Amino acid sequence: MDLNSTILAVSSPPGHSTRGIVRCSGPCSFDLLRSRLVDGLASIERGIYPVRLRMKDVSIPSLLSLTPGPRSYTGEDSFELQLPGHPSLLNRVINDLLEDAFMAGLNVRPAGPGEFTARAFLSGRIGLAEAESVAALIAARSDGEIDAAERMKDDRLGQLAQGVSDKLSDALALVEAGIDFTEEEDVTAIEMDDLMQRITQAIESINDHLQRSVGLESLQSLPWVVLEGSANAGKSTLFNALLGRDRAVVSGIQGTTRDVLTEPLSMSSIQGAEVLLVDVAGEEMPVSHLDEIMQASAARARSRADLRIRCIPPEESSPSREEDVVRVGTMTDRADGVRTDVDVCVSATERTGLDSLREIIEQRMIERCSRLAGDAFVLAPRQEAALDVSRRCLQETSNLLDDWKSSGTIQAPELVAGLIRDALDAIGEINGAVSPDEILDRVFSSFCIGK
Description:
The protein has 3 domains: 6-127, Gyrase A, domain 2; 143-216 and 378-430, Up-down Bundle (Four Helix Bundle (Hemerythrin (Met), subunit A)); 224-365, 3-Layer(aba) Sandwich (Rossmann fold), CATH 3.40.50. It has 14 helices and 14 strands. A hairpin with a 2-residue loop joins strand 3 and strand 4 (58-67). The longest helix is centred in the middle third of the chain and has 25 residues, at 156-180. By secondary structure, it is an alpha/beta fold. Helix 6 (156-180) packs antiparallel against helix 7. The strands form 3 sheets. The chain has a 6-stranded mixed sheet.
């Protein structure tokens, strides 16, 4: 990674918005900025300043955030410009700044994916686990995933890795010292019981962490609860009522829902748990190619569902009971009497029966909802794999020591040293202490440009 150049990128999400952000970091940052400010750069002190950015014949109001290194996110001289969030304007600012840099002979280039956060890691401003939490936060699609990303910032994993690494480093040094002095009589660098105790403590620390951990992948795979039924069965109205806001368009015209709509739905009785509520097109005979695509998308959603909510209007009879299907009598405010052929009756417009339906969904989904206990750890797949490899190496070491216990001597210290070294290398990957280049590339390539 080229750390000598200054990097530049749009750092706000794509699309139109009230504000957009242009971010720059590197040794040429402030020289580049001076060329575009109408009133120049009077100070390079840390702070936020209202400025105007020169753009050919006009100037644009902007808010400048100035962060001289090393007390910036990247550890380098950095600035951010908050501008009107039109994509064309933001791209124009980037192109003009790159052109200024070329004309002035400054070493400035567009940033690569995750390069700002990579520089923060390489400068020691953040750890590798915290960098991965930034990536998880960027990719979060629900409140549960945001909570999981925030948990990943917790330094308990880094503290565990450091503590286990210290124990193993000491044990490895003593085992290798014993190898070096193997020809010396009456010299024992580490006793069998002492080594066994160190290995056991390391295994217990890793096991405790893994037992209280939740995989990030499982939190990102919310169970699907799909609303299905005939056209105009009240699916979209129920969808909005369960969410508590208008997300789907509701109309008496058939075929209004033409795409698969998905929204996270919190489980009120299960703290931190969510399902993905899905609204699909009503079941009807397709009369056009677009209808065929719409029905195919709905069929795929139903096949993927962990739970199906069958919406049945008053004029429609209820099908027989099926596993993983909840029969919901909709529009009960229009029904003549109480229905007994469904599992629950609701009126989305009068908001009756919704609590009962939520309770049924929660009861059926309680085993499938990913949730975070108060003391739970969140592990990225790479982190979980590193802990597991380290634990297996240590367990193999423990098994060998058990076999040699009767003799009271470490019969193959070279083998033990190799296993401890493998365990140390694996757990060292968590903090990036011994990470090979491909591990760093894999972490930061998952970022978007400008992060």
